[in-house]
Amino acid sequence: MTSTDSWGNPLLVYQSKEILHGQTAFAVALLICLLLFQVY
Prior knowledge:
- There is one protein chain.
- The chain is mainly α.
- It has helices spanning 3-8, 10-39.
- The protein starts with a helix and ends with a helix.
- The mean pLDDT is 80.
């Protein structure tokens, strides 16, 4: 698979964005959990 194929395929671009968004949401949730543990 070449870079032109991934850029030309909207589904792959959408999946990569969804994965990035999921990782960001997971990182935010992890930070919130750490903050809550620091409070208690």
